[in-house]
Specification:
The model has no long low-confidence stretch (mean pLDDT 81). The N and C termini lie far apart (41 Å). This protein has one domain. With 203 residues, it is mainly alpha-helical.
Length: 203
């Protein structure tokens, strides 16, 4: 097995991970509302959870989607509803340092599970395994899928962490309740807008 595809894969992983999407928008909001350290489980959950999903896609989930089209449609519907719920939670978040009762950042498991209802994350995984994965490789299926997943995870973590750090940089500016409301409403609106390509794909 050769690794000639790694530079192209890492470039794709970086570009797709660093550009805006549900994960990154939520991390900006988390960094602004809870700080970088409290958002660490969220970041690690995204990277490891997405890497696991990429691995599973390479092992055969892509073929399952082709065999059962309604499975992908159902996943898209669940994703849309959940993103709307998360947008509401972000829009109603309280001031930094003064969280609402019960308010807390995503846990590792919540962030990892979210990847399965995140349209951009699913697309990234499908594209990675389709373009750089097992098809046409002489290596074992599990090994090729694992290499793609690990390369994606290692590139993804520093990329998504940048967004949480960006959130912390505007944390002090958001001490104003008016600014915080405007910021959270903007983040919530942008999160909802990430559903537009998903809805267009269903029409």
């Amino acid at each position: 097995m050769t690794f000639d595809f790694l530079p192209a894969l890492i470039t794709f992983a970086f570009v797709s991970s660093i550009t805006p999407g549900p994960n990154n928008l939520m991390l900006v909001a988390s960094g602004a509302n809870y700080g970088f350290r409290r958002s660490l489980p969220h970041m690690v959950g995204i990277s490891l959870g997405h890497g696991f999903m990429v691995f599973i896609l390479g092992l055969g989930l892509l073929q399952l989607f082709d065999t059962i089209p309604n499975l992908k449609l159902s996943l898209t519907a669940v994703c849309s509803v959940y993103l709307l719920y998360l947008a509401y939670k972000i829009a109603t978040a309280s001031a930094p340092g003064k969280p609402k009762e019960g308010a807390k950042p995503f846990t590792f498991l919540q962030a990892a599970a979210f990847q399965w209802v995140n349209p951009k994350a699913i697309y990234m995984g499908i594209a990675a395994q389709t373009n750089y994965g097992p098809e046409g490789s002489t290596a074992p299926l599990w090994l090729t899928s694992l290499v793609v997943a690990v390369a994606f995870t290692c590139t993804n973590l520093p990329s998504v962490s940048t967004w949480a750090w960006m959130g912390t940089q505007i944390r002090r500016w958001l001490q104003s309740p008016t600014r915080l409301r405007a910021f959270n409403f903007t983040m919530a609106t942008l999160l909802i807008l990430t559903l537009v390509p998903v809805i267009k794909g269903l029409l």
